[in-house]
Structure formats: C-alpha cells, structure tokens
User: Fold these one by one.
Assistant:
Number 1:
Amino acid sequence: MISRYRYILSSIAVVIVFVFFFIKALLPLANSVGVRFFETVNEMKVLHQVGENHVVTDSLLEEYRVTLKQMDAFLGTNKSASDILKLLLDLSQQHQLVLLDLSTQEPESKTHSTEYPVVFQALGEFPKIHRFLTDVENSDLCIKVSTIRMEREDSGRAKASVELSVFVREPLP
C-alpha cells in the first residue's frame, strides 16, 4: 500500500521541485517586467502633464520672439565706422575726456552682421572715464568691450586703453 502512494508522493515532489525552479527562474524576469511597466506608466504621466502645459510653452516662445525683436532693435542697420567714431567723440566731449589714437580696424563680416573693432585711449579723471564707458555700453549700439587697461599718469589723471567691437546688422538682400 505504501508503494502505491510512493509513486504519487514522488510525482508530487517532482512537480513541486519543478514549480519551485520555474518560479525561481521567472521571478527576476517578472520583477524586471514590473519595473519597466511602472517606469512606462510614470513616463506616460509626465508626458500627459507636459501636454497639459502647452500654453506655458507657447507663452515662452512668444517671450522669446519679443526678446529677439528687442535684440534686433539694438543692431542698427544704417551705422557706419564714421557714425561709431562720431558717437565716441560726442560722448568723450560730454564727459570732458581727451581721446587719443581713436581708430577703427578692418570690419569683420559675419552671417548677417558686421563687427567693427575700435581702439582708443581716453585721458581724464577716473570717474569721468567710468561714466564715459558706461554711456558707451548703454548707447543704442551693440557693443562688446574686449580690453580696458588703466594707468595713472604723472599728472594724476587716468589713462584708459580700450578695445571694443561694435556689431551692426547688415540689411538682408
């Protein structure tokens, strides 16, 4: 009688061992599938939230367009080297400075703009030189100041050697 149950018990034990190894092999696979499923669900939630916020993106694009228009307004289309030199001379007279060696170098043309390198030395009191450079930077020209070297003269006045570039937009053909 025991031998009759022995085959049944051994068959059940083999099935239990087989199921145990099968589950042990499938458990990591099921775990990785579950992790990927929850990652996908979270990505879908984020994409859904981004879809709801499209108005914010549109307003940012509009702000970007306005900023670009403002930047274009800084780049004058009718400025020449003589206009730039005239502006610098006028500002130096307003601030009671003496400009020495004022010159523009060969302009460098880029895609839709021209860069006019300007080199000069300004002689005067330090606060006046500072106000002059601030007014130049705040003028209606798009300016990049490359170098400012300051020295004190024997007379007590300051001497500033300045290298800057003025960017001018060329009219499109």
Note: The two ends are 106 Å apart (CA to CA).
Number 2:
Amino acid sequence: MRVVTTRVSDEFFRNLKEIEQDEHAERAEVVRRLLADAIKRWKLKRSLRMLREHRITLRKAAVIADIPYVEMFDRASEAGIDIGYSLSDLEKDVK
C-alpha cells in the first residue's frame, strides 16, 4: 500500500470530518472509500467516452470500467450510445 499526501480546502476538510462521524470510520478509511468510488466513476466515464468515439468495443469498455459486459451494455444504453445492438437484441440472443 502507498501513502498519498494532499492539501484540501477547509470545506473539503469539514465534509470529510462529517463523513467520518456519520460513518464511524477513521479518516484514512473514509478517504480510501471516497477515492475508490471516484476512480470507479472516472473509469466508467472514460470508457463511455471512448465507446461513444468508437475508439473501443463494448467488451473493451467493460474491461476498462471493470464491470461486467452486460452492465456496460446497460450503461451504454443509458448514456444514449448507439452500439448497433439493442437491449431487445441481447435478450433474444440470451434466450
């Protein structure tokens, strides 16, 4: 495990303290959870952008976002990305 040090605004610090108290967790654990969540959202956003730009396949987007293929299919659909294959097509293929 690596150590990361950063400066944050007073507002971020107050929010961090509030989360610590609310979740009854140590600061380091709260920061790890928040960072993990932010990285997961960033990976999904990046993979959807690359998919929209036709730079990667749906399967590769799922790998980048670290989510199952079917979930990536759903997320792409929610984002209005036309991948040339509809949810009803997938349901038919699964049956």
Note: Residues 10-94 form one domain.
Number 3:
Amino acid sequence: MSIRSQLLKGILDGCVMAVIEKEPVYGYELSKKLQDIGLHDVSEGTIYPVLLRLQKNGLIRGEMRPSDVGPNRKYYFLTVEGEEALATVAEEWEQISEPVNKLLKGGSGGN
C-alpha cells in the first residue's frame, strides 16, 4: 500500500462525512465529488465500505429516493452523532496537520 493510500485511509471517513454534511449524496456521486476535489484514488469500491461502516456506527443514515434516470438511489445524510464526529475529526486534523506541515516544509522542529 502506498504512503498516499495509507494517509488517505486515515482521513477518508472525515472527508466522506464532510461531503455528506454539505448535501445528501448517493455513493457514485460522493465518489465523483471526492475525485473532483483532487482525491483521484477514491473509487466507488473504496467508498461503499466506508459508507457501510459509517452507517453501522450511526454516523450517517441512508434513505432510498427515486432517481430521474434508472432505479432508486440510496442517499446518505449525517446524523447528529455524525455531525459531532465530523467536528471532532476537523479539530483533530487541524491539531495534527499544522505541526506536520511545519515539519515537512522545513520549519523549526521545536528548536
């Protein structure tokens, strides 16, 4: 597994919840939105296990809705627990990303 894949795996749940927070989406649409922002490694095959895990943990809920083209689609929504988890992810990410960016960009390592 590449370093990029390992890093993405650690934050993907938060990314998925952040997209769902903005508007309810179905799986393929979610995958496209993540790819459109630059996460090209995120395929439908990657997304569906994440959606299942988030739903099982009560962070999102799914609802079948009619589609203009083809069969019904399952749209995902954040639950209250999901909103709280997303806020925690965002806070934790900021606490980690700022010092890591400093280190990787040649800033002082605390000296």
Note: The longest strand covers residues 60-65.
Number 4:
Amino acid sequence: MTPIPSPARDRLTTEPLVAHLATCHDGRPHAAPVWFHVRDDAIEIATTGRKLTNIREDPRVALSIERTEDSEPQWGMTVRGTATVVESESEAISRRLNAKYGADEGTWTYD
C-alpha cells in the first residue's frame, strides 16, 4: 500500500466531503457519490449494490474528491487504486463514516 502524502491526507481528513467512486461495469465506467474515511493509509467506504458488485468483478477503482466554496472549486484530487472488500469491518466502517458525517447512529448501515 502506498502511503498517502501528508498534504493530501490533510485535505481528505479536515472536513466531511463527498467523493465520487468510479468502478468498472461491462468495460464502462460507473460513478456514484460516496462518503469516505481515511484510516492509516487506506480510504474506507461502505457500499452495496452495483458498486460492490463492480468491485468484486474488477477491483480497479478511482475516487474523485473536490472541495468547493460558494460553487467555486477550491481544490480537487483523484485517487486511483485497487479496492479490497473487507466484510468483517463493515459495521466499524459504517460507525466511522456516521461519526465523520454527523449521521445518527444506525441511520446509514450497509450489509
């Protein structure tokens, strides 16, 4: 796993931003908004449905994150890599995401 450079880590951890996860489906990109959390040198998301199926079939992914202020882009970055499905951590990841984004406990859970 490649370490996340400090400047990028600072931008990814200072506020709850929405990212767009791009996966592959039938040789075409599939993008969807997701919440994310940085833990160690991994970017965690919790997902189900088409995104999860896509990752299981082809783990190559990209995550696009942008910060805007009054609809003006302040910065943006794209992270590319290989996803790992960690089902044993799904509840813990959901709790970390809920805490980061201010969701009520149990509001957003994933199978």
Note: The radius of gyration is 14 Å.
